[in-house]
Amino acid sequence: MKIVKLLAAGLLSISLAHAQDDVMQKSMSMMEEGMTQIQQGFLNNNVKLIENGAKLVNDGNALFSKKELIAQYLPAEKKHLANHASNVSKRISLDVNVLNLNLEEKAYIKASNAYSDILNACSSCHAIVRNW
Protein backbone atom coordinates (compact mmCIF):
# COMPACT_ATOMS: atom_id res chain seq x y z
CA MET A 1 0.00 0.00 0.00
CA LYS A 2 2.88 2.37 0.78
CA ILE A 3 4.38 1.71 -2.64
CA VAL A 4 1.11 2.63 -4.32
CA LYS A 5 0.93 5.87 -2.34
CA LEU A 6 4.55 6.68 -3.19
CA LEU A 7 3.94 6.02 -6.87
CA ALA A 8 0.79 8.13 -6.81
CA ALA A 9 2.64 10.98 -5.09
CA GLY A 10 5.47 10.71 -7.60
CA LEU A 11 3.12 10.81 -10.56
CA LEU A 12 1.26 13.75 -9.08
CA SER A 13 4.45 15.76 -8.59
CA ILE A 14 5.60 14.95 -12.14
CA SER A 15 2.27 16.00 -13.60
CA LEU A 16 2.30 19.23 -11.56
CA ALA A 17 5.81 20.04 -12.77
CA HIS A 18 4.72 19.31 -16.34
CA ALA A 19 1.66 21.55 -15.90
CA GLN A 20 3.91 24.39 -14.71
CA ASP A 21 6.13 23.97 -17.78
CA ASP A 22 3.00 24.09 -19.90
CA VAL A 23 2.08 27.45 -18.35
CA MET A 24 5.38 29.04 -19.33
CA GLN A 25 5.41 27.45 -22.79
CA LYS A 26 1.80 28.41 -23.42
CA SER A 27 2.42 31.97 -22.25
CA MET A 28 5.49 32.47 -24.43
CA SER A 29 3.84 30.80 -27.42
CA MET A 30 0.76 33.00 -27.13
CA MET A 31 2.86 36.15 -26.86
CA GLU A 32 5.02 35.12 -29.82
CA GLU A 33 1.95 34.47 -31.97
CA GLY A 34 0.39 37.74 -30.81
CA MET A 35 3.50 39.76 -31.65
CA THR A 36 3.60 38.14 -35.09
CA GLN A 37 -0.04 39.03 -35.70
CA ILE A 38 0.51 42.62 -34.58
CA GLN A 39 3.47 42.99 -36.93
CA GLN A 40 1.54 41.46 -39.82
CA GLY A 41 -1.38 43.75 -39.04
CA PHE A 42 0.81 46.85 -39.23
CA LEU A 43 2.48 45.66 -42.43
CA ASN A 44 -0.88 44.92 -44.10
CA ASN A 45 -2.97 47.77 -42.64
CA ASN A 46 -5.17 45.22 -40.89
CA VAL A 47 -6.45 46.69 -37.61
CA LYS A 48 -8.40 43.53 -36.72
CA LEU A 49 -5.20 41.46 -36.91
CA ILE A 50 -3.44 43.97 -34.64
CA GLU A 51 -6.30 43.78 -32.14
CA ASN A 52 -6.30 39.97 -32.19
CA GLY A 53 -2.54 39.95 -31.69
CA ALA A 54 -2.77 42.41 -28.82
CA LYS A 55 -5.33 40.17 -27.12
CA LEU A 56 -3.04 37.15 -27.49
CA VAL A 57 -0.09 39.09 -26.05
CA ASN A 58 -2.19 40.32 -23.14
CA ASP A 59 -3.64 36.86 -22.40
CA GLY A 60 -0.25 35.16 -22.68
CA ASN A 61 1.37 37.79 -20.50
CA ALA A 62 -1.30 37.34 -17.82
CA LEU A 63 -0.50 33.62 -17.59
CA PHE A 64 3.12 34.25 -16.61
CA SER A 65 3.20 37.55 -14.75
CA LYS A 66 3.34 36.68 -11.04
CA LYS A 67 6.77 37.03 -9.46
CA GLU A 68 6.38 33.82 -7.46
CA LEU A 69 5.55 31.77 -10.56
CA ILE A 70 8.40 33.28 -12.57
CA ALA A 71 10.87 32.53 -9.75
CA GLN A 72 10.01 28.82 -9.95
CA TYR A 73 11.54 28.70 -13.44
CA LEU A 74 14.76 30.50 -12.58
CA PRO A 75 17.90 28.80 -11.30
CA ALA A 76 18.95 29.68 -7.75
CA GLU A 77 21.53 32.23 -8.87
CA LYS A 78 18.88 34.11 -10.88
CA LYS A 79 15.91 34.04 -8.47
CA HIS A 80 16.42 37.75 -7.81
CA LEU A 81 15.61 38.45 -11.48
CA ALA A 82 11.99 37.39 -10.95
CA ASN A 83 11.29 40.94 -9.83
CA HIS A 84 12.66 42.32 -13.10
CA ALA A 85 10.60 39.84 -15.13
CA SER A 86 7.48 40.73 -13.16
CA ASN A 87 8.07 44.43 -13.82
CA VAL A 88 8.54 43.70 -17.53
CA SER A 89 5.20 41.89 -17.48
CA LYS A 90 3.55 45.00 -16.02
CA ARG A 91 5.22 47.12 -18.71
CA ILE A 92 3.89 44.80 -21.43
CA SER A 93 0.38 44.98 -19.99
CA LEU A 94 0.51 48.77 -19.96
CA ASP A 95 1.86 48.91 -23.51
CA VAL A 96 -0.91 46.62 -24.79
CA ASN A 97 -3.44 49.03 -23.28
CA VAL A 98 -1.68 51.97 -24.91
CA LEU A 99 -1.63 50.14 -28.24
CA ASN A 100 -5.37 49.44 -28.05
CA LEU A 101 -6.23 53.01 -27.04
CA ASN A 102 -4.20 54.38 -29.93
CA LEU A 103 -5.89 51.99 -32.36
CA GLU A 104 -9.27 53.27 -31.18
CA GLU A 105 -8.10 56.83 -31.84
CA LYS A 106 -6.64 55.80 -35.23
CA ALA A 107 -3.24 57.00 -33.99
CA TYR A 108 -1.38 54.26 -35.81
CA ILE A 109 2.13 55.69 -35.37
CA LYS A 110 1.62 55.85 -31.61
CA ALA A 111 0.16 52.34 -31.67
CA SER A 112 3.23 51.07 -33.53
CA ASN A 113 5.43 52.78 -30.93
CA ALA A 114 3.59 50.84 -28.22
CA TYR A 115 4.24 47.63 -30.21
CA SER A 116 7.93 48.54 -30.37
CA ASP A 117 8.00 49.07 -26.61
CA ILE A 118 6.41 45.64 -26.06
CA LEU A 119 9.12 44.11 -28.24
CA ASN A 120 11.82 46.00 -26.33
CA ALA A 121 10.36 44.81 -23.01
CA CYS A 122 10.39 41.20 -24.20
CA SER A 123 13.96 41.52 -25.47
CA SER A 124 15.09 43.17 -22.25
CA CYS A 125 13.75 40.35 -20.11
CA HIS A 126 15.15 37.64 -22.35
CA ALA A 127 18.54 39.35 -22.47
CA ILE A 128 18.83 39.74 -18.72
CA VAL A 129 17.26 36.49 -17.58
CA ARG A 130 18.88 34.36 -20.28
CA ASN A 131 22.26 36.15 -20.30
CA TRP A 132 22.07 37.16 -23.96
Task: Describe the SSE topology.
Elements: H1 2-43, H2 47-63, H3 67-73, H4 82-104, H5 108-129
Question: Summarize this, please?
Answer:
The protein has 132 residues and is mainly alpha-helical.
3D structure, described in words:
With 132 residues, this protein is an all-alpha fold. It has one domain (24-129): Up-down Bundle (Four Helix Bundle (Hemerythrin (Met), subunit A)), CATH 1.20.120. The chain has five helices and no strands. It starts with a helix and ends with a helix. The relative contact order is 0.11. Mean pLDDT is 86; it is low at 6-19.
Keywords:
single chain; 132 residues; mainly alpha; Four Helix Bundle (Hemerythrin (Met), subunit A); elongated
CATH superfamily: Cytochrome c/b562
State the CATH topology. Four Helix Bundle (Hemerythrin (Met), subunit A)
Mean pLDDT across all amino acids: 86
Beta-strand content bin: under 5%
Global geometry: elongated
Q: How far from one another are the termini?
A: 49 Å
* Poorly predicted tracts of residues: 6-19
H/I helix tally: 5
- Give the C-level CATH assignment: Mainly Alpha
Radius of gyration: 18 Å
In the CATH classification, which architecture applies?
A: Up-down Bundle
Order of helices and strands: HHHHH
| Topology, number of strands | 0
- Please estimate the helix content: over 70%
